[in-house]
Every structure is written in C-alpha cells, then in structure tokens.
Design a protein that fits this description.
Blueprint lengths: L3 H7 L9 E7 L2 H7 L9 E7 L18 E11 L1 H23 L3 E4 L3 E4 L2 E13 L2 E11 L17 H5 L5 H21 L1 H9 L8 E6 L2 E10 L5 E5 L2 E5 L3 E4 L1
Helix pairs in contact: 1-5, 3-5, 3-6, 5-6
C-alpha cells in the first residue's frame, strides 16, 4: 500500500504533486488527466496502483504488477509549442535518471526519445500526450512508468525490462522515489524555461547512442544513419551520407 504521508513529507515542490490523487485502478492515468475536467489544476499528479489500459508509445501495452511499481501522470497547463513539449519530454526522463543515480547509485542511460535504461535494460518509460484549444496546445500530460519492486518480467520484449529491486537487490520505498522524481521534475521544468541548454547537455551526457550508427523505425519507414546529436529542441539529428535530417519520433536501435 502506498503511504501518502511518507510521500508528502519528502515532497519539496511548489506546485508539482501538491494536488495528489491516488487510485487503486484506472484505465489509464494519462487518459484520466486529459479527459476528466475534475482534475484541472496545474501540477496535478495522479498515481494508480494498476492501469487496465496502461500504454507506452505507439499504443503499446505497458504491463505493470499492481502495487509494486510507480505508474503516474503529471498535468501541466498553459500555452505550449511543439519544441517546448519535446524539451519537457527530455526533462521528464532526465528527472527519473537523476533520482535513480542519487538514491541507488545506478549508472543510467537515456535512450532517445523517452526510455530510461540501467545495464541496457529498460527501467522506466515516458509517454507525453497533449490536448489543444483552437490552434494552441493548452494541456500536457506526462505519463511515467517506473519498474520499482517488480521481481520478474515474463514474456518477450524488444528491450529487456528490469526494476530497481532487481538492480539494487532490495525492495525500496516507492514513496521516496516518487517524491524525489517530482522534486527533480519541478527543478528541471524551470530549467526548460530558464536554461534549456543545461537540460539538453545533461540529457546528452547520459545518451550513449550519440555518435553511433542507428536504425530508426518510423511507422512503415526505416532510416539508417549516424546519430549525430540532438538539436536545440531535443529532436534527433540523423546524418545519412552528406545529408542531415531532423527526426521528430521513431524507435531507435544501434546498428
């Protein structure tokens, strides 16, 4: 059972998570925050012990044992541009990485655009969704799934999953981890506005794919080239021969 008091004591934010909603089960925390107007306060965090329709990118199912992990979404309100949303995406995965490094001394790798890896295995993933009013994006929901105390992951995966428990060799406090991630996220959100280069550089420092040959699958297209860098908005810069292409989305793997 999630101890809300323990979580609240460790939360050190101005607005992120100050409106905190805890649910035993929902279909999807992202869908709930995007579509339910009852939850309309900037910085609202919705944590569910189980998601019956939890999903990752490209509508892939996100499987998570009830009561063992962290599956939650953060609501942000305002006027957003696409490039800002992508920086927030990088800031989200960076926030998870920083907490895993600080609390458990993990060597964390970030995989573009939104996966968090430990020992080449996936420990967390991010899914950002948004809604528009007119031609303006006015609401962003950041869904974060972190494998915390799940002991095993049966089945076949493109990237083998792992959990904090498996890597740290101990059951850990979900409350402490969630509060730390949210503390980092609020700090990083401010940096997105004030010092985006710091977010970009901190993310780059944890991405071991940069400089390597990669394959990118985008729907039914496949591109192969050199992962040259990320641009000022966090989009992938792909070199194919003498040409340079900007990639906005896709599944990236090393060649």
């Amino acid at each position: 059972m999630f101890n809300i008091e323990e979580f609240d004591i460790k939360l050190d934010t101005e607005f992120i998570g100050r409106n905190f909603i805890y649910c035993d089960e929902v279909d999807s925390t992202n869908t709930m925050l995007l579509t339910n107007n009852e939850f309309n306060r900037d910085g609202t965090v919705l944590l569910a012990e189980y998601q019956s329709k939890g999903r990752g990118r490209k509508n892939r199912t996100w499987v998570s044992n009830a009561g063992q992990n962290l599956t939650f979404s953060i609501l942000l309100k305002g006027d957003f541009k696409e490039k800002k949303i992508n920086l927030i995406n990088l800031a989200s995965s960076l926030s998870v990485a920083q907490s895993l490094e600080t609390l458990y001394q993990f060597d964390v790798e970030l995989k573009w655009p939104n996966d968090v890896l430990v020992n080449k295995k996936k420990i967390a993933g991010i899914l950002i969704e948004s809604s528009s009013k007119g031609n303006k994006i006015n609401k962003i929901v950041i869904g974060i799934g972190i494998n915390v105390n799940q002991p095993n992951f049966p089945g076949k995966y493109d990237i083998q999953p792992t959990s904090v428990r498996k890597e740290f060799k101990a059951i850990v406090s979900r409350e402490k981890l969630l509060s730390d991630v949210l503390n980092n996220f609020e700090n990083n959100l401010q940096l997105v506005k004030d010092a985006p280069d710091k977010i970009l550089n901190d993310w780059r420092n944890r991405c071991k794919m940069i400089g390597g040959k990669v394959k990118i699958v985008m729907d039914d297209k496949v591109k192969v080239g050199l992962f040259d860098d990320i641009d000022e908005s966090g989009f992938l810069i792909l070199k194919i021969g003498d040409k340079v292409e900007k990639i906005h989305y896709g599944d990236v793997s090393l060649r």
